Amino acid sequence: MNFERIKEKLNILADAAKYDVSCSSSGSKRANKNKGLGDSSGMGICHTYTEDGRCVSLLKILLTNHCIFDCAYCVTRKSNDIKRAAFKVQEVVDLTINFYRRNYIEGLFLSSGIFKNADYTMERLVAVAKKLREEENFNGYIHLKSIPGASDELMREAGLYADRLSVNIEIPSEKGLKLLAPDKKREDFIKPMQKVKNEIIQYKSEKKLIKSTPVYAPAGQSTQMIIGASGETDAEIMYTSAYFYKQFKMKRVYYSGYIPISYDERLPSIGTEVPMMRENRLYQTDWLLRFYGFDIRELLNKEHPNLETDIDPKLSWALRNLEHFPVDINKADRRMLARIPGIGMRSVHKIIQARRYRKLNWEHLKAIGISINRAQYFLICDSATFETKDRTAAQLKSLIIGTSGSKWRGAYSNQLNLFGSNAPLTTS
Amino acid sequence: MGMIDQYIYDGTFEGFLSAVFEVYERKPLVVKIVSERIATENFFDEEHTIYTDQVKADRVWKGIQTKIGKKAGDWIYRAFLSEKPDRERVLLRIIKKGFLGHRVTEDYADVDVLRLSNLVKMVGREKHRMDAFVRFKLTKDNVYFAEIEPDFDTLPLNAIHFKNRYADQKWLIYDRCRHYGVYYDLHKISYVKLEVSKDINTSEAAPFYFTHDEMHYQDLWKNYFKSTNIPSRKNMRLHLQHVPRRYWKYLSEKQP
Fold first, then answer.
1. Do B89 and B193 belong together in one domain?
2. Cis, peptide link before residue A326, omega less than 30° from 0
3. B122 CB-contact burial (10 Å; exposed 0-12 / middle 13-18 / buried 19+)
């Protein structure tokens, strides 16, 4: 192996792939077989973290950054004057295996610029996965990008070797896509998603009848949207997200704050701050939908098209719906417990188990690990002391913000200073 | 002041279980189970040496698994690996409560259960970190070698994980704090007592121990780590929360 040349390619093609935020390596059931290499049946593992705090679980690279498209938001766009490179199939296989054997990674996340056409590109991605599985007996995790417009046959084959497949819709709305990626069509993204969804359904029904049915994309499919590049509201983003979860049975939708990489006037200019707090609030909303039993319409709607930035979306919902509180911790069902601000699903689970043995009081709740600071105004328990004052939502909010150490607080005090007063920050 | 019986055992899990057996056998009024590594002579306590007895240990272990439950057994073992000074006291109380029918993996409002679940969580987190932070280097003998210094004695748990994962390569993971390792020879894992010279990590000695390609792969990995970073999102606080400095020593991507 020519290590110097590989190093150069790796630098270019890892740098170009890093804007894809997914790094999940969980959810597959591929166990080690025939004493081969690797196992991805357990939980995902982050082998290290970048200095921006993102998990590094997979070798995330492009096969090539040559691309025939010119999407404004993409660093690999045709018109961008950057160094281009391309890996050979065998080079990716060797890198993956050697990194995996040293326990650097859980597997490979392979994407690509589109060269020649969709099928030609997809064919090469599939060739890498096939080689890893069939020649190297590799049972680690493989995430392949579905190339928009790739044929059904190739998508079928991809799922036989990959654990996860994904197509990034990138721009949450059709009008945004038209503006920023005029050569791309929404149908081209949807087609491979639809195919993968159908294959997974078919696999599940055939598996019941024939045990030896070859496994198809066991970790499902995911997608990603860029946040803050094309002017959508939080509601537009999250309704799109809810649609993809429902329509295509997505395992995950990722939100990626736009990182300015271009002087194109259709986009936020270079130097604009990455909307990390907004991204965080969207993820919290996503979690509320997937694990806490919330409906998107409760969190975002015509009256509230954007999330509040200074408090989390669950607290925000609670303050708008004070008639549901206080909740009796010793009686309420799982659904209502999950809606109390400051109580996560792990605590809900512990509360339900622990209250079978005794009535819980503040001491117990503190020991279980709930955030008393936020929760105290929304619950009653087996104690004589309670929050009895009838406060308005605005009073509660300022009380809670005043006592909590949010990680965004620094960002907030700056914004407040801009207005030169101590007036509470109002959000639209 | 009343006499306290001190049961001193060898620090192994089997030894601890043997001590628990003796507690049920001899029924002392007040008892403290103490590892010989920690035991100090105490004028007021009466010391008893407990000999590790595989048969007695097995009986207690079986009892725990059938009467208290498999999950409880797993928790007790993991909490033991924490090596925390209160582990024997907490675990003895848990075992006693468990044999009386108390649900020791559910009643989170009970002080001992809460402590147990916290110990299990701490050990689990450290085990998971070691699964992630082990960095193998290929030696000239064709063995993938790694060193660790975990906060708790997690290597027995990691060994199972690595055996499932690297079935087709020989590997050795060495715990430099506790001076033992686990070696996998393509068939089975075995525990080995050994001393590994400290110079193995120096760049002068590396070419003597490791293959030529090894240095190149470490270099590629370091480069990948750099290229995949997004400087405009830099957040060192979050980074350090995930990768605390004490683990950097053996992470190849963190070497200068």
1. no
2. yes
3. middle
Coil, helix or strand at residue B220: helix
pLDDT given at position A281: 95
Strands (E), chain B: 4-9, 31-35, 45-49, 137-138, 143-148, 170-175, 180-184, 189-193
Q: Are A204 and A214 in contact (CB under 8 A)?
A: no
ipTM of the modeled complex? 0.92
- Number of folded domains in chain B? 2
The H-or-E segment that residue A223 falls in is: strand A221-227
β-bridge partners, B8 = B34, B49
Contact A112/A63 with Cβ under 8 angstroms? yes
The pLDDT averaged over each successive group of 10 residues in chain A (428 residues) is: 93 91 83 88 89 91 94 89 95 97 96 93 97 96 93 94 92 86 84 91 89 89 90 93 92 91 85 88 96 95 93 95 94 96 94 92 91 91 78 89 62 39 35
Domain range A3-264+273-299, CATH architecture: Alpha-Beta Barrel (3.20)
What are the residue boundaries of the structural domains of chain A, listed by start?
A: 3-264+273-299, 313-419
What are the tokens at B219? 């270099």
Mean pLDDT of chain A: 88
The C-alpha torsion from A86 through A89 and A95 to A96, rounded to 10°, is: 120
Asked whether residue B57 falls in the same domain as residue B138, the answer is: no
Contact A98 B233 (CB under 8 A): no
| Chain B: closest CA distance from residue A59 (Å) | 8
Nearest to A18 among B137, B221, B230 (CB): B230
Asked if residues A216 and A159 have their Cβ atoms less than 8 Å apart, the reply is yes
Measured CA to CA, the distance from residue A32 to residue A139 in angstroms comes to 6
| Closest CB from B186, B220, B253 relative to A10 | B220
Query: Kind and range of the H or E element at A225?
Result: strand A221-227
Put simply, the answer to whether B230 touches A54 (Cβ < 8 Å) is yes
If asked whether residues B138 and B237 sit together in one domain, one would say: yes
The stretches of A210-275 forming alpha helices (DSSP H) are 234-248
Question: Are B92 and B194 in the same domain?
Answer: no
Q: Flag whether B9 is in a domain.
A: yes
Query: Tens digits of per-residue pLDDT, A179-207?
Result: 888 888 888 888 889 999 999 999 999 98
